[in-house]
Write a structure and sequence with these properties.
160 residues; alpha/beta; 3 helices; 21% helix
Length: 160
């Protein structure tokens, strides 16, 4: 009755789903192989070749690189969507958007500059760019939580 292919693909697609629950706050970059659902807060860069869903209680402050996005919550920053960006009635967007297709429900707030572009985004290049600069244009290497700087500091301390 059920083929092996259907059951295996269902298990694989569930295994690749990621969820950031309400009440959770993540500060930093997220790279995922599968889709992401955000019901909590994320400050940083989110990169996935899958779909990103920002739920009604979800908030993203930073950058988003993905194939498709469905937004019900709040996003402030830069969005680079290879496919369709869907803004639900409760969505609130501020910043810069580059997208192939845009769907906006009545009631959504869209305070962003928007570029319609059918050329896919290279996910590797945005990650390197995001690491080089912060949201305010400050160099992340001067950030107190920068791993490279901490490692260098530790090596210097060990030499003395």
């Amino acid at each position: 009755m059920f083929s092996e292919k259907k059951n295996n693909s269902l298990i694989e697609s569930r295994a690749q789903q990621n969820k950031i629950s309400e009440g959770t706050k993540i500060v930093g970059d997220i790279n995922a192989a599968g889709g992401i659902r955000v019901e909590g807060q994320v400050e940083g860069t989110v990169t996935t070749p899958g779909k990103v869903v920002i739920g009604q209680t979800g908030e993203l402050i930073g950058r988003l690189f993905c194939d498709n996005a469905d937004i019900e919550g709040r996003v402030i920053g830069k969005l680079h969507i290879n496919g369709t960006l869907t803004l639900r009635a409760t969505a609130h967007i501020e910043g810069e958007v580059t997208v192939a297709k845009l769907a906006v429900e009545p009631g959504a707030t869209f305070n962003a500059s928007c570029t319609m572009n059918n050329e896919p985004v290279n996910y590797i290049k945005p990650l390197e760019t995001a690491k080089a600069t912060s949201l305010e244009g400050q160099n992340l290497q001067n950030h107190p939580f920068d791993r490279a700087k901490r490692t260098q500091k530790t090596k210097t301390e060990q030499q003395h």
